Amino acid sequence: MKFLRRVFPIAGLVIAAGSLSGCNILIPDVAADSPARFVQETSPVFYQPPGVDPRRVRPIPDQPVPQTRELYKTQFHQTYGLPVSNPVHMAMYGAVRDEDFTLPAIPVSRVQPQFLRQEVDYQTAERPGTVIVDTKAHFLYFVEENGKAMRYGVGLGRDGYAWSGRGVIQWKQKWPRWTPPVEMVSRQPEVRAFSAENGGMNPGLQNPLGARAMYIFKDGQDTLYRIHGTPDWQSIGKATSSGCVRMLNQDVVDLYDRLPAKAEIVVM
């Protein structure tokens, strides 16, 4: 009996070890560390259509990178992620304090870009400092040196087409008083309150002459032709019912500061 008690535990251990030898638990898989096996198991598999020789397939040439992209354009022809307006224009036409008044900012995004102030190439026989008004294109040029000019967009009223030729800007004035001529008073009786006999209209943001006015003379006589600012920024680049040469108030201030004394002007 004692013998059998000693034999049975040993036999149980032998049977258990034999049953575990079938599992790969106690014996490590040394072949998994083989570099050749690793390459074989991880090598890529390429799709090869039948009848196609990969050595005879030509590579696709590189396509050129597009220089411009149409990125989610809106109905307003703007592109998401890009500035809506030129920051330089925002600075030029922002609100500005001038004398006793504050000129309001101009919504430049609603003004045609060609009528905004910009320096352009401009070949002319006129000397620098001359003002040239192109009534057909609605542009005013201030001639600079080296074939350059500062170009401004202008609006032209009925009186703006009434005179052409060569003259002199006899004098200029900041925040002028508006005194409509007799002809305008007869056409528009509603402006009689601002006639010369009634003292005219005080300077201000609603004054039709705007922030500056320049008076053109020829042979010492007033031509009644004026270059002036206007609060009506929507009239720039257009023909209006009255007035001479209208400029954005920020532009007429800029031109006023550039003009030399007794500057020549050519209207064509």
From TrEMBL:
Listed GO MF terms: glycosyltransferase activity; peptidoglycan L,D-transpeptidase activity
Keyword Transferase: yes
Keywords: Cell shape, Cell wall biogenesis/degradation, Glycosyltransferase, Hydrolase, Lipoprotein, Peptidoglycan synthesis, Signal, Transferase
GO BP: any one term: cell wall organization
L,D-TPase catalytic domain segment(s): 129-268
Pathway given in the UniProt record: Cell wall biogenesis; peptidoglycan biosynthesis
GO cellular component terms listed in the entry, alphabetical order: extracellular region
Catalytic residues of the enzyme: 228 (proton donor/acceptor), 244 (nucleophile)
Gene3D superfamilies for this protein: L,D-transpeptidase catalytic domain-like
Annotated signal peptide: 1-21
Top-level lineage group: Bacteria
Family of the protein in this entry: Belongs to the YkuD family.
Protein name per UniProt: Lipoprotein-anchoring transpeptidase ErfK/SrfK
Organism expressing this protein natively: Rhizobium leguminosarum
